[in-house]
Design goal:
alpha/beta, nine-stranded mixed beta sheet, two-stranded antiparallel ribbon, 32% helix, globular
């Protein structure tokens, strides 16, 4: 979803070599979310990125359009967050993150705004405290909504357009019924965009039972239709991840122009391939458990980035997706007119994705 979201958010900006770098500042988080990978992890590496290590990334940021300052932890617990935002902005990049809103008050919100933050997403798991607070243990929905209001009030007071605020809603069976109420809530607090995502990285049986998307066919949910109708009426952009598998050339993480840097400097194609857990960890894919290996192509704190980016295994990984994208574009060429839009796809078989991605739900287009 990274590729599509940031293309729309910052459309019209000059295109750089990389669309987005996701940089993990911390793996610490005060919450105990039921859908987090930590729920299925036997060990968890807790740590923060040293500010001196972050400084090693700065020379490369001139080639990056957007820096997403988050990984498997809560960005707001990182001590040097506002300092990092300023550095990213000095490098002429867009800066933002998704947060649970931990500890936000007037002073902290003012700091973030003055640092130059471009966007911030607030993670909600329900439209009522009874649902949100249970799914996101240690979170408080009312406090989170107050944090959003503080942002809105300070922006209005100073007549600012940034940071752009949006809601991120990870839909599962336990909270789907509240999605229409969430649209009402967004209107009430002045949010004009809701990004609805699927539970992609499944690590235990509860999460497997809670995922909404199907691996072999879709299901209609009245809540989704009701939410979509409300969003149109309120002029709220509701971006919902599909629940039905679909063919994609490249997953929405788009590793051809995006990458992930872990708290300890490891460079990986995406956040799902390098969580802060042991080298071999368990995940579920379409109802079956799999042993999954962490994937890093090198450590950017220890060697030049170009050495990592041009390493043969990384080139081979990206070439798999480049070939898939080429075949996909040949199979589904952009429609020129009504006649072409109605034509069936060509009989072209896409090359397989890289081995580490073959048991990732992102390759289902959900």
């Amino acid at each position: 979803m990274i590729r599509g979201f940031f293309q729309k958010l910052f459309s019209g900006r000059q295109r750089k070599r990389f669309s987005a770098w996701q940089i993990e500042l911390t793996t610490r988080c005060p919450l105990g979310c039921k859908m987090c990978i930590r729920e299925g992890a036997t060990q968890w590496h807790t740590g923060d990125m040293a500010i001196d290590d972050f400084a090693k990334l700065v020379p490369y940021l001139k080639d990056v359009e957007t820096v997403i300052l988050e990984g498997w932890g809560e960005p707001l617990v990182y001590r040097d967050l506002t300092r990092v935002i300023r550095v990213v902005k000095q490098a002429q990049c867009q800066a933002g993150f998704v947060t649970c809103g931990w500890g936000l008050d007037d002073d902290r919100v003012t700091e973030l705004i003055h640092a130059g933050l471009d966007f911030i997403g607030f993670s909600l798991s329900g439209a009522t405290p009874e649902t949100h607070n249970v799914i996101r243990a240690n979170s408080n929905l009312l406090s989170l909504l107050q944090s959003i209001r503080i942002f809105q009030e300070l922006k209005a007071r100073d007549k600012l357009t940034k940071p752009k605020l949006h809601i991120v809603f990870l839909m599962i069976k336990e909270n789907l019924a509240e999605l229409p109420l969430l649209v009402d809530l967004a209107k009430e607090i002045g949010i004009d965009e809701i990004v609805v995502v699927n539970l992609i990285q499944v690590t235990n049986e509860w999460q497997e039972q809670q995922r909404l998307f199907s691996c072999d066919g879709g299901e209609d949910y009245a809540s989704l239709k009701e939410a979509a109708m409300k969003a149109r009426a309120f002029k709220i952009r509701l971006r919902m991840a599909p629940l039905t598998p679909r063919e994609v050339g490249v997953c929405s993480e788009y590793p051809l122009r995006n990458l992930y840097i872990s708290v300890d400097g490891n460079v990986s194609p995406c956040v799902y391939l390098y969580p802060p857990v042991p080298p071999l960890f368990r995940t579920w894919y379409c109802g079956k458990e799999h042993a999954t290996s962490k994937l890093s192509f090198g450590n950017i704190f220890e060697e030049p980035f170009e050495s990592i980016w041009n390493r043969e295994p990384y080139l081979a990984f990206r070439n798999c997706f480049a070939q898939r994208e080429k075949s996909f574009d040949e199979k589904y060429p952009p429609p020129i007119g009504e006649q072409e839009a109605m034509q069936k796809p060509k009989e072209i078989v896409l090359p397989p994705p890289p081995e580490p991605c073959r048991t990732c739900h992102k390759m289902l287009g959900v």
